[in-house]
Amino acid sequence: MPSYFVYILTNKKNGTLYIGMTNDLERRMREHKAKEVSGFTKKYNTSLLVYLEQHETSFEAFKRERQMKKWNRVWKIELIEKENPKWEDLSKNWN
Q1: How far is Cα 26 from Cα 66, in angstroms, rounded to an integer?
Q2: Quick one: which of 16, 90, 27 has its CA closest to 53?
Q3: Using an 8 Å Cβ cutoff, are 54 and 5 in contact?
Q4: CA 71, CA 11: separation in Å to the nearest integer?
Q5: What pTM did the predictor assign?
Q6: Structure confidence by residue, pLDDT tens digits, 30-60
Q7: What is the largest CA-CA distance in the chain?
Q8: CA-to-CA distance for 54 and 6, rounded, in angstroms?
Q9: Answer CATH for 4-83 from 3.40.50.1000, 3.40.1440.10, 1.10.260.40, 3.30.9.10
């Protein structure tokens, strides 16, 4: 069954936040870390994966991404800290 991910990146604890969605999280993280795509994540160096959610359909993931992007910063930080209080890079041991 396909999996889709909604994720939050940052450049440091309590730093700039980026919310994205993908169907291939490992590939997308390689792209973010290598700064292959021009845009927000390259400009602000947001390449630390601090939060992720898995969804069964692209529609569910898209709805969740849009919802989270509308949230205020405090809610986003609370979500990260509930699951990842040390703001560790969840992708640090990936190849």
Answers
A1: 21
A2: 90
A3: yes
A4: 19
A5: 0.94
A6: 999 999 888 999 999 999 999 999 999 999 9
A7: 35
A8: 7
A9: 3.40.1440.10
Cα–Cα distance, 6 to 10 (Å, whole number): 14
Question: What is the DSSP code string of the chain?
Answer: ---EEEEEEESSTT--EEEEEES-HHHHHHHHHHT-S-SHHHHHT--EEEEEEEESSHHHHHHHHHHHHHS-HHHHHHHHHHH-TT---TTTT--
Do 1 and 78 form a contact (C-beta atoms < 8 A)?
no
pLDDT at 95: 66
Distance separating alpha carbons of residues 21 and 31, to the nearest angstrom = 13
| Domain spans, the chain | 4-83
